[in-house]
Amino acid sequence: MEIVTAGVPLMILVICFIIITGGFCPNTDALLMNCLESDQEALLDFKNGLYDPENRLSSWKGSNCCQWWGISCESNTGAVIAVDLHNPYPQRFHSSSRYGFWNVSGEIRPSLTKLKSLRHLDLSLNTFDGNKIPEFLGSLKNLQYLNLSNAGFSGAIPLTLGNLSGLQYLDVESWSSYVDNLEWVTGLVSLEHLVMNGVNLSMVGSDWIRTLNKLPSLTKLHLSSCSLSVTIPTPAFVNISSLVSLDLSFNKFNSKVPDWLVNISSLVTLDLSNNGLFGRIPLGFSELPNLQFLYLAGNDNLTGSCHQLLRGRWEKIHVLDIASNSLHGKLPASLGNMTFLTRLNLPGNHVEGEIPSSIGKLCNLMHFDISNNNVTGTLPEVLEGTDCLSRKPLPSLQYLDLSNNHLVGKLPEWLGQLKNLVELRLLYNSLHGPIPASLGLLQNLSVLWLGGNELNGTLPESLGQLSELIFFDVSSNHLTGLVTEKHFLKQGKLKHLLLSFNSFTLNVSSNWVPPFQVWHIQMGSCHLGPAFPAWLKSQKEVTNLDFSNASITGSMPYWFWERSSNLILLNVSHNQLEGHLSSPLSLASFAVVDFSLNFFSGSIPIPSDNIKFLDLSKNKFSGTIPKNMSYDFYVLSLSDNHINGEIPVSIANNRHLLVIDLSRNNLTGSIPSSIGNCSFLTALDLSMNNLFGKIPESLGRLKELQTLHLSDNKLSGYLPISFLNLSSLETLDLGYNRIMGRIPPWFGKGFKSLRILSLRSNSFSGELPSVLSNLSSLQVLDLAENQLNGSIPASFGDFKAMSQVQNSNHYLFYGTFDHYLLYGTRGGYYKENFVVNLEGQFRTYTKTLSLLTSLDLSGNNLSGGLPIEITKLLGLVVMNLSRNHISGYIPESISELKQLSSLDLSSNEFSGVIPRSLGLLSFLGFLNLSKNNLSGRIPYSDHLSTFDAPSFAGNLGLCGTPLAVKCPGDDEEDSDSGWTTPKDNNSGDSFVDQWFYLSIGLGFAAGILVPYIILAMRKCLREAYFGAVDVVLERILYLWLKHRTIQKRNRGHQQ
């Protein structure tokens, strides 16, 4: 009762309190004045057309409408001058569902026009879904403020709004409204603020700026996301010279920045971001005396020199955002003169050079981002900045992002002095050295990203003092040592812990309960074992868990499966875990699960419907694949287990499948034709099983398929002609089967992306189709071990990809879905692999497969000569033509194949001499020319001298080193009579020979004559002595003959 009788002042306070939370606050005099009866009736009729679920208009009763919520009256007459029903809690800005009901909707009734004195109307942020803006609003002659933004209105904005000649503020921001003619705006002669963000203006033509140029009082113009295109036109004269704020962001201008903008000296805010603008950034922007906020981000092709642009005056600049453009050059030292600068945003450009130490003088700088550039050098060891009040550099800095650059050196100590720093991002540089312990002093730090560098040493225990830390990433460095409980002592707010790819050993007590409840744990390649970490039991909010390669043994604890239903990502691969998995596997929606490379056994667990990526490869699972595999997978990998039985037909019910990998098992039966229904499939690997029967024609429906491996099975029949539809195919591996028939010529009609074609070890016959050379992307062609005949087509020298040296390596993988590539952990993909006969051995290529070019036609019945056109394949790394009937000469131009690492021409009918040019192939690591009809001296020089006799064996006409067979003439030189020294034209060698023979003569003289006098007197000594001399003479003769043979061989090489 006391509250009711407390009087008008208390009522005023209550009403104003309500108004502060979202209503229009009237003055106190108006509350004491009764409103006009006609206005009250009009408002009640207006209310009756509205739907008010939260009963916000419950106060709209009684005789004095001036006291109603959202209503304001004129103090003298009581006439309603303001209706403010904007939603103070729009749902998109508040997570609480309750606020979504604060909006009003329904019908805007014409009774509003009876409010003759109405000057302020705000219906913004409500949900008048589908309603058009009423045309009768244009009759509110006294209206000065109209805000209908984001209120759910759609359709054309009425031209009648142009009648509001007294209107000063108009905001019709909407994403479902349009205007096809802007001429009506010229009637708004008093307009100061015009906001039309999101309104479709694509039909207004190119004169829009000339139309708006007729509004001399305009100070604020916001036309963001209005589908304006072509160019920003140039008006005949700039009449809008009083503009303070201009926002033309998110349009499609695709033009240069207009020069006339630099003449609007009143500009405080200019936003031209995300417009497709190109050309140089006008240097005149730096001379605008009032400019405080400049946004040019996201145009991609705006250019300019950092040194020129940033050394301008920039008298009052607060925010400079030029992210994602083409700025180049170094940051000038004069950057430190922008004393008002609070935000410098330059990521995604081509900024280079070092960071100047003068940035320390930016006392007001709060946000500094030059990530994704080409910044080099070390971070400044010392910063300037003693002029700041704190006497320390960068005292206001809260956000520092230098990620994805080329920074080197150590982390400077001044980083630990940035007391207000909230986010420190130094990801993916080449920083080395220890992490400074002083970083533990940054008590406001919530984000610490140091991953992807070369940091070494141990993790400072002081980091455990960061009580505000949420993101902690030191992954992918060279850090070592123990990680203990002290490292997390006060990190109670930690949600993201990334320690992977270091050499940490987690050393905590068995009953440790962490102070945090993390969402994301990444500890791959850390030593966590041998037992599964017990502390994880206390973590009830984990959604992403990576314990891969963590030296964990034993089985998964039972309590883990009780927590697993929250997991979106689970990676425990590359451990020694064993036992059976929980069945069914229960995880969160869209889960990514990787149990690969362990010792899990038993039957395949039944997955839940939520799992999208399941990798159980390289374990010891046995039994059959569950018959019901309708789980809507994206990736399914069961490879390298002991699974038997048939492939279930139900596997094709997973219509979103990107990857099926069932390779290296004991599967039998035929390939289900239903797999052809998996229209999104990009990788199918059924290799190394016992599958039989024909290849289903239905596989030709897989138009997204990029890699198909069916090798090492018992498949038979012919190649399906439906394969011609596989236009996206990059790898086709059908080797080691029983497929027969001719190689179809339609291979040369499609397959523009085919890199690898293997039909090895089948029963293909007939001639090689010359049209195969149309496969412009082909790098690996393996047709070995078939029954092919005829000659090698000359067109095989036209393989475009083989004729180019492959210098750019990129990992070939398929089936990626980026949504799951969280925090650098594995998402889901199929790694391409292929086995190549290299240097006489079979090797599996994966990571460097994109660099390989190989031609293998071995083990067939090919005849004729080796086309000289083959030597145009300059990128060829492997060529194997062995075990055929190829004849003729080895072309001298084979030396052009400078990338050759392996060359096998053995077991053919090649004749003639071995080209001396073969010795120029410096990369050649394997050479086999054996079992041919080659003849003449082996040119055993240069690189050919690195190969032994087996490389040349089986050629009856070959002679010389390294074979034991001597060439004609070699014996004649070795059969010189007596001890006569052979004639030698080389004076140096002759001089050495003379001393060699002189030393032998003197040795004989001293060894025979001197002892002769002594031994002549004793028969027993004489017999023993001359027996020893015979042995020595035999040894000397052997050494002399060896010396002469080596000399002659060297002279032959020099000739």
TrEMBL record:
An example Gene Ontology CC term for this record: plasma membrane
Taxonomy, superkingdom: Eukaryota
Cell membrane in keyword set: yes
Chain ranges passing through the membrane: 7-24, 995-1015
UniProt entry keywords in alphabetical sequence: Cell membrane, Glycoprotein, Leucine-rich repeat, Membrane, Receptor, Repeat, Signal, Transmembrane, Transmembrane helix
Membrane topology: Single-pass type I membrane protein
Gene3D superfamilies per the UniProt record, alphabetical: Ribonuclease Inhibitor
Residues in Disease resistance R13L4/SHOC-2-like LRR domain copies: 112-296
One Pfam family this sequence matches: LRR_1
Main location per the UniProt record: membrane
Chain ranges of the Leucine-rich repeat-containing N-terminal plant-type domain: 37-73
Location(s), subcellular: Cell membrane
Protein family (similarity comment): Belongs to the RLP family.
Protein name: Receptor-like protein EIX2
Organism: Ziziphus jujuba
